[in-house]
Write a structure and sequence with these properties.
The chain contains 14 helices and 35 strands. By secondary structure, the protein is of the alpha+beta class. The structure holds beta-D-galactopyranose (GAL).
């Protein structure tokens, strides 16, 4: 026994020694990787298969390694990997996945676990991306497909260099149940792991590097940024046509229609085949819709019914367990992929279906496979849970990629590595306030999120939800069970229509901002904390008279802003919630202007606004340029030219690069795109004047006549 203990001690010390010598290699400028212990061969990055955008990363350039290396501690103990990164006083943390209730993560204890969000920010969520960003500007990513435990600044070690002075609770009212912690600690149930560190002087730098390492965001087709209605589960082809007619008659925009489980002959588990009663001639139906400018998106969950045409063939390549009695294909293996995605291709994609909604790849536990399930590839149930959404997105996206056709759909689970997939996350949770916080956090998790609209108790709620939905990655009504239409609440119908049309008018802006997500890694929807000049203002407000030495948490506990966000380069969106008549808006440094009127709203200050029902408060940065097009009912076709009306706000000169390409194919990857420079400058006579650079020869050009509006008089 004694020898045994000695041996353990020896091995332990060896591993510790090894850990201290962990080498960091700069894999891309400003991105370092360390290999701790023996990482598993299956991880988030290889499940996602994402390729870095090397050119864009090189353009960003490098930067110094953000820590002193000996402040970092890694070791493998008891078959698990322990990681520790330092935290400084006043530092705040963001990220650790798609949280719904909090933006500030310092002090949190989490277990990162793919699941349907259950109402608590405890790590169980649709995209528990093991990536965090510090207010100091750097980022950290752990490339593991395991459930990762995180103590984001909660543990206090006795050898901590910043060990706080113990206080007497009996007499000292400043005693705290949560004394100061100076480290982020993580435990990964595996004998090793790859860790990445991202340089940055501000948090957006680290976010950009993380996104670009994963290929950058997906560039959606233009139609993906239009409006989408998901119809009731058991709608027939005729019902869908009827609905499309109504949208047209009433003048509401519509780019794609989502068919819910009833398009399949059986669902939960599914057959992945059309229901021939509801849809007697799918190719003719799909074509008819396409001819009218309407694309179709099909709901699936990946669990295979005995009545699916490939059931017997796929059976040997599925899990030991089932979901709703359907087989769970092992998507890490080629054969089941061929069978599963092959069916989707020949039955749906080849006849013109434009995308999918991939449901229930996240949780809940009571219907997904348990952790004791096995998969034929040998990938564990836990790793499969963490990556099933990634795999489903990856291989369904390929169906479209090989046709040189862009898609844009919905999914309920993603994870680290999933940035470049054409999917937006949604769920059943339906809390408007928390939906906005999720939108904020999506920008830290390398994913897109939609605060979908389903049904509402009142017209007011309907309108408030609709207004935020228009300022999100996917403008969608999910009426799978309620059957609601945009015009269902007559008392707010006028306003709803105005916002649906506004979404369309803003398409040139949205499209360019998504292009920046793709080419530069900047999330189109993101936290105020990523906006320069934001923190300073908050500090001014909440940190006056605070001594960081006495209260090291001060900045970290400064008020978190979780109900307003940035939409693209220039817009600040501050949603209104049911029952609210006024709200506070924190305007970062510089001047901000009302989106609707162009009037000055404030400058680096907290304002209180009373917008009335008709408006969701939106503000534009000084010098902001918002390119807009006419309110079309469908996205423009690939070669269609549209006129632009470019709005300029404020006093400063404006400078914006407008992205243009065919809006539908991947030809942009071979150079078929352009950035047109828009400029607004003040003339000698004091008047503003706008110009746009001419189109490049041989490049797609969808810009018709250009006019400028100077919103600030
Ligand atoms: C839910 C999903 C809904 C809807 C429904 C259909 O799980 O989140 O959006 O698709 O399934 O059964």
């Amino acid at each position: 026994m004694r020898y045994f203990k000695a041996l353990i001690f020896f091995v332990g010390s060896f591993l510790q020694l090894q850990a201290q010598e962990t080498a960091w290699s700069e894999v891309q400028p400003g991105i370092w990787k360390a290999v701790v212990g023996k990482p598993e061969s299956y991880d988030l990055l290889n499940a996602a298969g994402a390729e870095p955008n090397i050119g864009a990363l090189a353009k960003l350039g490098g930067g110094p390694f953000p820590f002193s290396k000996n402040e970092i501690d890694f070791k493998v103990v008891d078959g698990e990997t322990y990681l520790r990164f330092p935290l400084e006083k006043g530092e705040q943390l963001y990220g650790f996945g798609l949280n719904f209730q909090t933006v500030h993560q310092r002090g949190k204890i989490l277990e990162l676990h793919v699941d349907h969000y259950g109402g608590k920010d405890n790590g169980r969520t649709h995209a528990p991306t093991p990536f965090y960003v510090s207010s100091k500007g750097y980022g950290v990513f752990v490339n593991s497909a395991r459930y990762i435990k995180v103590w984001a600044g909660s543990g206090v070690r006795k050898d901590s260099p910043d060990f706080p002075v113990p206080k007497d609770r009996n007499t000292d009212r400043t005693w705290s149940s949560r004394p100061y912690s100076d480290a982020v600690e993580m435990l990964i149930p595996a004998e090793g792991v790859e860790v990445y560190v991202f340089a940055g002087t501000k948090p957006l730098d680290a976010v950009k590097r993380y996104n670009l390492m994963n290929g950058g965001g997906y560039l959606p087709p233009r139609w993906g940024l239009g409006f989408t209605q998901r119809v009731m589960t058991r709608f027939t082809g005729a019902d869908v046509e009827n609905e499309v007619n109504l949208f047209e008659e009433k003048g509401y925009p519509l780019d794609f229609v989502g068919l819910e489980p009833g398009w399949q002959s059986k669902a939960y588990p599914g057959t992945f085949s059309w229901d021939k009663e509801r849809f007697p001639d799918p190719p003719a139906f799909v074509k008819k819709m396409l001819d009218r400018g309407i694309r179709l998106n099909l709901w699936i969950n990946p669990y295979v019914s005995p009545e699916a045409p490939f059931y017997e063939e796929i059976k040997p390549f599925t899990s030991s367990h089932t979901v709703w009695l359907g087989l769970i294909p092992d998507f890490t293996m080629a054969k089941p992929r061929e069978l599963f995605f092959g069916q989707m291709q020949k039955d749906q994609v080849d006849i013109g279906v434009s995308g999918y909604k991939i449901d229930e790849v996240d949780g809940y536990d009571h219907y997904l496979w348990p952790d004791v399930a096995t998969f034929p590839s040998g990938i564990s149930a836990e790793q499969m849970r963490q990556t099933y959404g990634l795999l489903a997105m990856r291989y369904s996206a390929e169906l479209f990629k090989k046709r040189n056709q862009r898609t844009f759909g919905l999914v309920r689970a993603s994870n680290g590595g999933g940035t470049s997939f054409p999917y937006v996350i949604y769920n059943d949770y339906y809390n408007h306030e928390d939906f906005i916080t999720a939108l904020i956090n999506s920008g830290f998790a390398g994913v897109l999120w939609t605060p979908e609209v389903r049904a509402s108790k009142t017209g007011e709620e309907w309108l408030r939800r609709f207004q935020s939905n228009v300022f999100s990655p996917m403008a969608m009504i999910n009426a799978w069970s309620s059957g609601t239409k945009p015009w269902t609440y007559p008392e707010v119908e006028k306003q709803v229509k105005e916002f649906a049309l506004l979404r369309m008018k803003m398409m040139p802006y949205w499209y360019t901002e998504f292009a920046k997500y793709h080419f530069e890694g900047i999330p189109p929807f993101r936290a105020m904390n990523l906006e320069e000049g934001f923190n300073q203002e908050l500090k001014k407000e909440s940190l006056t008279n605070v001594n960081l030495e006495e209260n090291p948490y001060a900045e970290a506990t400064s008020k978190e802003i979780k109900d307003q966000y940035m939409a693209g380069e220039y817009l600040l969106v501050a949603p209104m919630f049911t029952g609210q008549t006024s709200r506070k808006v924190v305007l970062p440094k510089g001047k901000w202007y009302d989106f609707y009127t162009g009037k000055l709203a404030g400058e680096g200050e907290v304002i209180t606004v009373t917008p009335g029902l008709d408006k969701i408060p939106v503000y534009v940065k000084d010098g902001g340029l918002i390119p807009m097009m006419p309110a079309m009912l469908h996205a423009p076709k690939a070669t269609e030219k549209v006129n632009l009306e470019i709005r300029h706000y404020g006093e400063k000169a404006g400078d914006y690069n407008l992205y243009d390409d065919d809006g539908e194919t991947f030809n942009f990857e071979k150079g078929a795109f352009s950035w047109r420079q828009i400029k607004v400058e003040r003339q000698r006579n004091g008047q503003m004047k706008g110009t746009i650079s001419s189109s490049e020869k041989g490049k797609p050009n969808t810009v018709g006549k250009v006019s400028f509006i100077f919103m600030t008089k």
